[in-house]
Amino acid sequence: MDQSKIKWIFFDMGHTLLDEDGVHIARLEELTEELAEMGKTCPPVEEMLAEMIDFGTVGARSPFGEVAKKYGTKKKYPYNPAFETPFPETEECLRRLSEKFKLGIIANQRGGSAHRLQSHGLMKYFDIVYSSEEMGRSKPAPNLFLSALEAVGCAPEEACMVGDRIDNDIRPAKKLGMMTVRLRQGFFRNRAPESDFDIPDADIDSIGDLPRVFGL
Questions:
Q1: Sequence-ordered list of residues with C-beta below 8 angstroms from that of 182, at least 6 positions apart, any chain
Q2: Phi, psi (degrees; rounded to nearest 5) at 94
Q3: Could you report the per-residue pLDDT of 16-68, keeping only the tens digit for each?
């Protein structure tokens, strides 16, 4: 991929810019309490988090849902964004990149994503936020990516997608001709590529490593 063509960098949110572990710990603690009331037992939260990584490795769409089902409940445990926090390196990364590139969001998120970014002091770095709930379409469908690119007047080869998931971020973006960077964090960190479209242009272990991908 010719990096000299890149004008826009688009980001996923969960486990890319924002650390979601606190959210899932709270959900697992609630699950544990309710199972105990039902006379059921489950492992410590730390072990269930490790199981979520195992489910992500084999490509489960919802690692939390799989763990909940494993221990005997199909109840929905809402995602509470009050427990999410930016990774320590997130803001400095965005600040550096925003000096050279336009930045945007393409994420499977509920409405109000821009407000959440604002609450973390990050919205000032973004020119556009495309979330699945607000746009009525979700990744990996190409329409969400294409709509965002069309809105900003950017060709696929002039854009990069940064995310933690092969299935939702890397594969669909690469099929469109975008540059891709995989962030190996979260529950999908160990998932192996299944085709050439799953292999990103760059692999990083921390959002703080991203500026170096672009020579910054």
A1: 163, 164, 166, 169, 170, 200, 202, 203, 204
A2: -65, -40
A3: 999 999 999 999 999 999 989 888 888 999 999 999 999 999 999 999 999 99
Q: Which structure tokens are listed for 70?
A: 């494993």
* Position 178 confidence tier, pLDDT thresholds 50, 70, 90: very high
DSSP sequence for 77-99: ----GGG-EE-TTHHHHHHHHHT
Is residue 165 within 8 A of residue 188, CB to CB? The reply is yes
> How far is it, in rounded angstroms, from Cα 41 to Cα 5?
54
In the three-class reduction of DSSP (H, G, I as helix; E, B as strand; rest coil), residue 151 is classed as: helix
Query: Which among 1, 47, 4, 49 has a CA at the least distance from the CA of 22?
Result: 49
In whole angstroms, what is the distance from residue 62 CA to residue 58 CA?
11
What is the SS3 assignment for 211?
A: helix
Partners of 107 in beta bridges? 131
For residues 155 and 146, what is the distance between their CA atoms, to the nearest angstrom? 9
The H-or-E segment that residue 63 falls in is helix 63-70
pLDDT recorded at residue 67: 94
Q: Give the global pTM.
A: 0.93
- Residue 27 near residue 79, CB atoms below 8 Å: yes
Query: How does residue 123 score in pLDDT terms, banded at 50, 70 and 90?
Result: very high
Residues in the chain: 216
pLDDT at 135: 72
